[in-house]
Design brief:
Elements: H1 2-16, H2 19-39, E1 45-52, E2 58-61, E3 67-68, H3 74-86, E4 95-97, E5 117-119, H4 120-129, H5 133-142, H6 145-155, E6 162-163, H7 171-177, E7 180-182, H8 184-195, H9 202-212, E8 231-238, E9 241-248, E10 255-262, H10 274-290
Antiparallel strand pairs: 1-2, 1-10, 3-7, 4-5, 6-7, 8-9, 9-10
Helix pairs in contact: 2-10, 3-5, 3-6, 4-5, 8-9
Catalytic activity: a beta-lactam + H2O = a substituted beta-amino acid
GO biological process, one term: beta-lactam antibiotic catabolic process
Signal peptide: 1-22
């Protein structure tokens, strides 16, 4: 008992005499409280996962709860596709021929004429940059379908992330979650996995990360981050779910966050939608937390463009 008391005393003394640790703990607690406050009152279910890659500071709120991926599933699809490319079964620059049978909606790819030729690299770019659905389903098929992509996810430590659509045996999950399902933690850590060059190979990870750095839809979480800061991101939205995963190259250390919602009461598609608003609120909160000396603010009137 005497030794235990001495040990506890020394631990407490170390904590008291280490203001950096104490400050870090206080900042983490403050961030946790601020995020909980931001999510309070949201009419639906929300989960958030945040990790500072430099300090290790992490906050997780409903971070291991399953949410619909909507278009964020296009990150795992890209991983499955690059796995095929790495194995030599596809070539990134190979020419593809579009067929009307591939049509899903009238996005850019869906408006191609039957027989039109397009490089696979451009189809991938359209999938990630403008979230083109026809391009994404085409890439999913080329990757070997949802079964092959899910096998890659399992093998690489992402057991809760799954492609449901057009995947045998996943019909019940599709009726509940839609195209895919994941957790805020897994989706954020998948972004880190790619960033750190661990997804498939360093060169494949680098190319995928470049694709994730070209985002057309920048009016929500990205609108709260200075435009000169590099980010890698993917977002997704359906009527009752709005989500975004972002890896921010902040001046004082990279951080990743993923906010996901489901069962939203607000199904509108205006900028003021509660899910879109929550994405902006959380993103702004995190930028201020990790870059407290930044004086940047979104330009007045920016919102009118959307």
């Amino acid at each position: 008992m005497r030794y235990l008391s001495t040990y506890l005393f020394l631990c407490c003394l170390t904590f008291v005499n280490n203001p950096i640790s104490a400050q870090h703990t206080k900042r983490k607690t403050n961030l946790d409280l601020q995020l909980k406050d931001a999510l309070a009152g949201f009419r639906g279910d929300a989960g958030v996962y945040v990790r500072n890659l430099r300090t290790g500071e992490t906050v997780a709120i409903n971070a291991d709860t399953l949410f619909p991926t909507a278009s964020t599933i296009k990150v795992p699809i890209m991983c499955g596709l690059f796995d095929k490319i790495h194995k030599g079964e596809l070539k990134y620059g190979q020419e593809l021929v579009y067929k009307d049978s591939l049509h899903y909606d009238d996005g850019i790819t869906g408006q191609l004429r039957d027989g039109a030729k397009i490089p696979l690299s451009e189809v991938v770019m359209l999938m990630e940059t403008v979230s083109d659905n026809t391009a994404s389903l085409w890439c999913q098929a080329l990757a070997g379908g949802g079964t092959a992509i899910n096998a890659w996810l399992d093998a690489n430590g992402f057991p809760k992330t799954r492609v449901n659509s057009r995947t045998p045996g996943r019909e019940a999950f599709r009726s509940r979650y839609g195209w895919g399902q994941t957790t805020p933690r897994e989706l954020a850590e998948l972004m880190v996995y790619i960033r750190q060059g661990r997804a498939i190979s360093p060169d494949a990870s680098e190319e995928m990360y470049r694709n994730l750095g070209r985002q057309y839809w920048d009016n929500d979480a990205l609108s709260q981050i200075p435009p000169d800061i590099k980010v890698a991101t993917k977002n997704g939205a359906v009527n009752r779910s709005r989500s975004e995963v972002v890896l921010v190259h902040a001046p004082h250390g990279e951080y990743v966050f993923c906010l996901m919602t489901k069962n939203q009461q607000d199904e509108s598609w205006e900028r003021a939608n509660e899910g879109f608003t929550l994405l902006r609120t959380v993103s702004a909160l995190l930028w201020r937390h990790f870059e407290p000396k930044s004086t940047w603010k979104p330009a007045v009137g920016h919102e009118k463009w959307w």
